[in-house]
Write a structure and sequence with these properties.
317 residues; alpha/beta; 11 helices; 35% helix; binds zinc ion; Metal-dep_hydrolase_composite; Metallo-dep_Hydrolase; Amidohydro-rel
């Protein structure tokens, strides 16, 4: 670009994306805390993340969220929408099933996304497919998209049958559904690093209730993730919980699962941007970028130390 100023030299990528993160609360169930939110967003920026999607927030974010100069861009789905008796106590809303599609559409009309928790623990009811299908239709009718939390095989089947836009976690998802997800453009955010980390803790705890469900699903999750990429499903990198700024760990987990470094980076950069509707490094596109000293595909350690992070044309690291 004529007259441009040199900011950094090295390997430039479209800014990284964390497609599943819930900044702003220290522990599950706590209300949104603006100081914690600022700290979490800073952690994302330092990790090279210039765009986040928050599929569920502990409260309404302040106006500057996703807008301010020193903030990653952000999409969010407001509070989680769950069934009675399910999900984290203190977080989310639990409308009657008859009202749920309307609540989801109202949320999507406000922020572009709604997030529905369609299953929870093994003995809990999975959301009826008709309810979810109506929610999808209503959300789409207002131009929004719908993401679902699923960690049960039956939930995954309901999600795909209802035609949601993204399956979050997807633990236990039937591999036979992957071609249909690819065909319909249903994305998968496996949150692989956080599920793998929980697996290690749960395996070490012999008294843990519902251990067999989690161990079974989490042990197969890396294989499922790699199979999804192979089947052509849009896979998005997402880190879920605190500490924030762990996108490098998720890329590493994808590579450890057998995803190529190029595709794992795509899941945390250009293909996630494209799925969320933002262009990459093209003329006239948003100036969101991250620069590494060496090619991160041949040296994943580069991801932990970006040379420069640029959002909205301004260097923020
Ligand atoms: Zn989550």
């Amino acid at each position: 670009m004529p007259g441009a100023e040199l900011v950094a030299e090295g390997w430039i990528l479209p800014g990284l994306v964390d497609a599943h993160t819930h900044p702003g609360a220290e522990t599950p169930g706590q209300p949104l805390d603006v100081a914690v939110l600022e700290e979490d967003l800073r952690a994302h920026l330092n990790a090279g993340v210039t765009l986040i999607r928050a599929p569920g927030l502990a409260g309404d974010p302040p106006d500057w969220f996703g807008q301010a100069d020193d903030n990653p861009r952000a999409f969010h789905a407001g509070p989680w929408i769950a069934q009675h008796g399910q999900f984290m106590p203190g977080w989310g809303v639990r409308p009657e099933l008859a009202e749920l599609p309307i609540i989801a559409a109202e949320q999507a009309a406000r922020t572009g996304w709604a997030k529905v928790v369609i299953d929870w623990l093994p003995d809990d009811d999975v959301m009826p497919v008709e309810v979810l299908r109506e929610a999808v239709d209503r959300v789409h009718a207002v131009g929004g998209r719908l993401a679902v939390h699923s960690q049960q095989a039956a939930g995954g089947s309901v999600a795909v049958a209802a035609g949601v836009d993204s399956v979050e976690h997807g633990m236990g998802l039937d591999l036979d559904l992957l071609p249909r997800m690819a065909e319909q453009g249903i994305a998968l955010t496996p949150t692989l690093s956080v599920i793998t980390a929980s697996l290690a803790k749960i395996v070490a705890d012999p008294e843990r209730a519902r251990k067999s469900w989690y161990v079974h699903g989490a042990s197969a999750h890396a294989r499922l993730t790699a199979a999804a990429v192979e089947a052509g499903v849009v896979v998005l990198a997402g880190t879920d919980s605190r500490p924030h700024g762990g996108i490098a760990e998720e890329v590493r987990a994808l590579v450890a699962a057998g995803v190529s470094p190029h595709q794992a980076l795509a899941a945390a950069s250009w293909s996630a941007r494209s799925y969320l509707g933002l262009p990459g490094l093209v003329e006239g596109g948003p100036a969101d970028a991250v620069v590494f000293e060496e090619d991160p595909r041949t040296d994943l350690d580069q991801l932990g130390a970006p040379q420069a992070v640029i959002v909205r044309g301004k260097r923020v690291r």
